[in-house]
Design a protein that fits this description.
2 copies of one chain form a homodimer. By secondary structure, the first copy, chain A, is an all-alpha fold. The first copy, chain A, folds into 2 domains: 72 residues, Arc Repressor Mutant, subunit A; 122 residues, Orthogonal Bundle (Tetracycline Repressor, domain 2), CATH 1.10.357.10. Chain A has 11 helices and no strands. In chain A, helix 2 crosses helix 5 and helix 7 packs across helix 11. The longest helix of chain A has 22 residues. The termini of chain A are far apart. The relative contact order of chain A is 0.11. Chains A and B meet through helix 2, helix 8, helix 9, helix 10 and helix 11 of A and helix 1, helix 8, helix 9, helix 10 and helix 11 of B.
């Protein structure tokens, strides 16, 4: 029951890379994603990543620091949260739920984005260490930014409730994959999700 | 392929088991998990589980009842999700969101219930097999029941959206544990969660 094609890491780019250059960075991050996916955060080895990327372990440490930093870089939230925050806030609070819902649903329509976000979620669910990394990252980079643009009591709590809905929808739709939710179109989900998010972010 | 340690079944207790005793129960639940994982909920056989556990099939039925009950016990659902259905529906749709929110928040205040629900979630996130088992069970036993009591278009989709919020709140509050959500009291969360759930279940 293995779909070999779907489980193989993407082919490595072997050509034209220079130490420390853009190609090396891409190769290292790709090797790191493969290693984290194959062995999990705890067991993934910097040495194995360096070997797979064909770079020196010292160079790996020089450019990426410790494993947790490499992990965050390798996950490369396909959405840069510093870009998401203004996108969600822009236009004011009246339609913020719909904007966030549209953004999330559109991102999930991109299979590579979705897969990487799910990998982050699965890893966080399995590892307290990774959950801890995510926790700090999300509060600092996402929650605080959106909360600062809201004029409601307990803005951080509300942003986190909205975030919890986004996380839960990913779990139910793509991980547990209950039907009809798993096959519902973004258009079907949009108004329902938008209202829930709007309620969290601006509801009295 | 996440951390192997997290996916290994607990070591078997082979010593000192008595028919119907605690050790037998552990052995049966372990055999059931293996059988459900190997063959899926529908095809799993009580007879095969009894055989694998080295107990009489009649004893298995005596202690665990039917296959659905054994399934819940094996996955260590701390509560029978089917009992939730009448509790949520009772009293009609006007305050269904608040009833569901109260029920969920009250269950999570019980640490053992919460821990075991989180264990189920984590396992489903890590294992497509377990996710598949949950999928069939939740849709057949929970979603259909609540949906049948609603008078809205796409009732299953709406119940699953409500379920997704409950799952996501558990992930964000207890697994990723972002603050202030992790430390918010049930009373703080109740009105916000209730409104979101109400919107899913009865909103136009």
């Amino acid at each position: 029951m293995t779909s070999a094609a779907g489980e193989q890491p993407a082919p490595r780019k072997k050509t034209g890379r220079r130490p420390g250059g853009a190609d090396t960075r891409g190769t290292v991050l790709e090797a790191a994603r493969a290693e984290f996916a194959a062995r999990g955060y705890q067991k993934a080895s910097m040495r194995a990543i360096a070997r797979a990327a064909g770079v020196d372990a010292a160079l790996l440490h020089h450019y990426f620091g410790t494993k947790d930093r490499l992990f965050l870089a390798a996950l490369e939230f396909p959405i840069d949260p510093r870009l998401i925050v203004p996108q969600v806030l822009e236009g004011g609070p009246a339609a913020i739920g719909e904007r966030l819902a549209r953004l999330v649903l559109a991102l999930w329509e991109q299979p590579d984005v979705r897969d990487r976000l799910l990998a982050v979620l699965r890893t966080a669910a399995a590892s307290e260490e990774v959950a801890g990394l995510m926790r700090g990252f999300m509060v600092a980079e996402v929650v605080a930014g959106v909360a600062a643009g809201l004029d409601v009591p307990q803005p951080e709590l509300r942003v986190e409730l909205a975030m919890s809905q986004v996380i839960g929808l990913a779990m139910a739709r793509y991980v547990i994959a209950v039907e009809p939710l798993a096959s519902a179109s973004p258009d079907e989900l949009l108004p329902l999700l938008a209202r829930a998010l709007q309620g969290y972010l601006t509801g009295a």
